[in-house]
Design a protein that fits this description.
Number of strands: 20
Strand order of the largest sheet: 6-2-1-10-20-19
Strand content: 25-35%
Number of helices: 11
Radius of gyration: 25 Å
Length: 409
């Protein structure tokens, strides 16, 4: 007799779990509170959907999850994801190891999921927000899933409701935390991750947005908490871009605790100390009748130049011959050590994932909860967060596939 399986949530992990459960003979129903499936998935990778990464390793995930991730990735890794998408009719291509659908459109991935769910006979009910999961007594645990509208009986329940990160349109409100807590699980403190940061009022930032290659370090006192390289984005009130997001999960707790966290930006990341000093000495030969504006014209982006000159309270009309050699060195030092005080993050609405969540100590290797062999927790609900580059979707597919397969047995 087919197992009656309820999947709470129709995102990446939930749809993946439903497909694996149905392929193995399960009688599967997805309860989704939105009016469509894969709403957050359709927005990932700037609408291109970075599915996974050929450079797959447990080291790409938060430290508290590394040990478990190594085992889970050995069960269902990047090659399994590629083969899974082939089975959905999605051609996967690599861009420097980053895996995308060949279509370049996240919408084709969501459509492929929906088509497969329909082909397998998975029932999808929209506008149903899971409110509670009750465990019935008896020889074998059964479950009653209560929503805002109805009540459903199930042999197995897979919680894939997502966490707190995402735009309001995705309705990511962390509903699953309360339900998991009611069933005895511990919820680790949650924070936005893969998110940008706001800078303290009074810090000098560009009036217009800037994108440029840079190295950025985050400091607590003299201690370097994180260091990343990539395309940095500076706005009138803060910093973002890939390097900031990559560092955010290591920094966010300190920021939320109002610790004195600073960002130190190197706008010349490809120069070592020797090369940079040689550059400065070469530029010192231009201390003549030209203005400071003329002098800096070819040094860097004009908005970055503006930031540094404003911070140093200099005037562009100043003649270079009137600026001391030590002052020129100070100007150039700011291009390699531009310091900004961080005041907070842009929050869950701007975050791509959530740091924290259901403790992995409460979850077995098969994604079931300790003490409840028919209750599974997958995806972002768990205390697992990865770097940018497809690692969080890999986790969604890994956890969803394991849970869906086991639930149907």
């Amino acid at each position: 007799m087919s197992k009656k399986i309820i999947v709470a949530g129709g995102g990446a992990a939930g749809m993946c779990a439903a497909i694996y459960a149905a392929r193995n003979g399960g009688d599967v129903t997805i309860l989704e509170k939105n009016d469509k499936l894969g709403k957050k998935l359709s927005m990932t990778g700037n609408g291109r959907c970075n599915l996974s990464n050929l450079n797959m390793s447990e080291k790409m995930y938060n430290q508290s999850a590394e040990k478990r991730m190594k085992e889970w990735l050995s069960v269902y890794g990047v090659l399994d994801v590629i083969n899974f998408f082939k089975s959905l009719g999605i051609v996967v291509k690599s861009e420097d190891g980053y895996l995308y659908p060949a279509s370049g459109q996240a919408s084709t991935v969501v459509t492929a999921f929906g088509n497969e769910l329909k082909r397998l006979g998975v029932k999808v009910i929209f506008g149903e927000q899971v409110k509670s999961v009750l465990v019935t007594s008896g020889e074998e645990e059964k479950y009653i899933v209560k929503t805002n509208n109805n009540s459903y009986e199930a042999d197995k329940v897979i919680m894939a409701t997502g966490a707190l990160a995402g735009a309001k349109s995705t309705m990511s409100t962390g509903d699953g935390y309360y339900i998991c807590k009611q069933l005895g699980m511990t919820i680790k403190d949650t924070h936005p991750a893969l998110v940008g940061f706001m800078c303290e009022e009074g810090e000098i930032l560009p009036k217009a947005g800037v994108r440029c290659a840079a190295e950025i370090s985050f400091l607590l006192g003299s201690e370097v908490i994180a260091k990343e390289y990539g395309e940095l984005q500076l706005t009138k009130d803060g910093i973002s871009g890939i390097p900031v997001m990559q560092a955010s999960s290591k920094v966010i707790r300190l920021v939320d605790e109002k610790k004195p966290v600073y960002a130190l930006i190197n706008f010349f990341p490809d120069y070592d100390d020797g090369d940079f000093n040689a550059l400065v000495k070469e530029m010192l030969r231009l201390r003549d009748d030209r203005s400071l504006m003329e002098f800096l014209n070819g040094i860097h982006n004009s908005n970055v130049n503006d930031m540094i000159i404003s911070k140093m309270k200099l005037g562009y009309a100043m003649k270079m011959k009137n600026i001391s050699e030590s002052m020129v060195y100070s100007i150039f030092d700011n291009y390699r050590n531009y310091k900004l005080r961080i005041s907070g993050s842009y929050g869950f609405a701007a975050a791509q994932v959530t740091s924290g969540g259901v403790s992995l100590g409460d979850i077995r290797d098969d994604m079931t909860a300790n003490g409840h062999s028919g209750f599974f927790v997958v995806g972002e609900l768990l205390d697992v967060d990865g770097r940018c580059g497809g690692y969080n979707l890999q986790w969604a597919f890994t956890s969803g596939s394991i849970a869906g397969t086991v639930a149907s047995l």
